[in-house]
Specification:
alpha/beta, six-stranded mixed β-sheet, two-stranded antiparallel ribbon, 4 helices
Length: 163
């Protein structure tokens, strides 16, 4: 069984006009899982509907507590991409479970979204990875603390190890 926690982020954004006015809407995650023919083996809990740039330390504590309190040892978290690495770092103390964060560069409601692929990839990663905290984005898995978002390239990348 996988505990799924939703926090908002681009994956759940709804745009209202050409000026990019948006809000975080109801998660499309149940619909995306049905479309992928995943009908059981998970429990979804909405924690918040926030853009990740608006997440506070108190929000990260709430995410940590929800992951810790889950009776399930495998946790998938949907999250905004801008501060996903920061939240992954905050979850590192939970060493007894597998935690996978994922999101999207384009909202799930858009035709050219990466949300569907990322959710499927993260679903598989959450089932297969050993205990630890990971980010699963665009076909790659990164360990918490060793990843950053490259804003210019619009992708996640490993942080080079110091010489």
């Amino acid at each position: 069984m996988i505990q799924i926690l939703t926090t908002g982020g681009t994956i759940d954004k709804v745009y209202f006009d050409a000026n990019s006015r948006f809000e975080i809407g109801e998660s499309l995650l149940p619909e995306l899982l049905r479309e992928a023919n995943v009908h059981e083996g998970y429990e979804i809990r909405e924690l918040m509907r926030k853009d990740s740039l608006e997440l506070t330390d108190q929000d990260r504590e709430k995410i940590l507590e929800a992951a810790k309190a889950s009776e399930h040892k495998r946790v998938l978290i949907t999250h905004g991409t801008d501060t996903m690495a920061q939240t992954a770092q905050a979850l590192k103390p939970l060493t007894d479970r597998t935690i996978v964060l994922t999101g999207a560069m384009q909202p799930a409601r858009m035709r050219r979204t990466d949300a569907i692929f990322n959710i499927g990839f993260a679903w598989a990663a959450a089932q297969l990875l050993p205990p630890g905290v990971y980010i699963a984005m665009n076909g790659e898995v990164f360990e918490a603390g060793a990843v950053r978002k490259n804003l210019e390239a619009q992708k996640f990348e490993r942080i080079p190890e110091p010489d």
